Amino acid sequence: MPPRIRVAPSKLTKSPFPRRQITTSSRQYAALAQVPHSHDHSIIPELSTIKDYPITQPPTHRRPELRKSQLLRQYLTTLRSSPIILIFQHNSVLSPEWAAIRTVLRSSLQKVDKEQGTNVAEYIKLQVMKASILTAALRLDVWWKPDQLPHPETFVHTHALSEEAYEFAMSESKKKKHGLEPVLVGPIAVVTLPRMSPEHLKMVFSILSPSPEFKAPRRAANPAYYERAVQTGVPKLMLLGARVESKPFTIEKVKWIGTIAGGLDGLRAQLVHALEGVGASLANTLESSGKSLYYTLDARRDMLEEKPKVDQAENSHPDGAESK
Question: Where are the annotated segments for Disordered (predicted)?
Answer without folding.
Answer: 305-324
